[in-house]
Structure to design on (221 residues):
């Protein structure tokens, strides 16, 4: 399923457009692109959802509870790999990586922020704070969550990260540079196909059991 398809159906008929924001206890109405700086948004409406799913890259940040633990921030290429499931729930495809920081941090405390920024068009930054969890490829829930993504059957897909969003903020993005998007790299797909499913699982067992701070990642049985 195309992550941008059926957005209006998933979000429902009752959503407000343009975006509604809140400041100092009063509701503000903006145009969704060049409104007041640094506002909280009530929910993800159709307009915002369409903007999110069409950004070619987004960033995910998590952290362990330990004061001396290492924070993690990961860039994610969006090849129809981000979906708005409902006004307060989003998900993205988690590809195999050499680390397992996001999954390990979510297992420990669930805290996560997903950030999008516009590199073309009107300046904009959107942050989605919430509580996340990893639906691993072997989970009975994986097929349901994977149905939101056309590429979920890819060899390198490790999990679906699901986020229950409890804060949505929109800021100016004036400091973000203008850049032209060329294309997504084919390297992940090429690498994972060479590995094959058995090789991928061996890689998980070698690289993804523990985080940098020795938190539990996931067990590959």
């Amino acid at each position: 399923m195309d992550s941008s398809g059926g957005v209006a159906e998933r979000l429902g008929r009752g959503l407000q457009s343009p975006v509604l924001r809140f400041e100092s206890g009063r509701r503000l109405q903006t145009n969704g692109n060049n409104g007041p700086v640094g506002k909280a948004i009530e929910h993800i409406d159709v307009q915002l959802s369409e903007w999110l799913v069409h950004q070619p890259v987004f960033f995910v940040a998590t952290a362990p509870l330990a004061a001396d633990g290492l924070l993690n921030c990961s860039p994610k290429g969006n090849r129809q790999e981000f979906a708005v499931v409902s006004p307060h729930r989003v998900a993205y495809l988690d590809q195999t990586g050499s680390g397992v920081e996001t999954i390990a941090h979510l297992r420990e405390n669930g805290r996560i922020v997903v950030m999008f920024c516009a590199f073309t068009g009107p300046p904009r930054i959107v942050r989605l704070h919430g509580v996340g969890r990893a639906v691993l490829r072997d989970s009975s829930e994986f097929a349901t969550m994977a149905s939101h993504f056309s590429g979920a059957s890819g060899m390198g897909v490790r999990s679906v990260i699901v986020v229950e969003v409890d804060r949505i903020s929109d800021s100016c993005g004036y400091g973000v540079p203008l850049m032209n998007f060329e294309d997504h790299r084919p390297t992940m797909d090429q690498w994972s196909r060479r590995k094959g499913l058995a090789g991928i699982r061996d890689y998980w067992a070698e690289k993804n059991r523990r985080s940098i701070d020795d938190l539990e990642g996931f067990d590959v049985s």
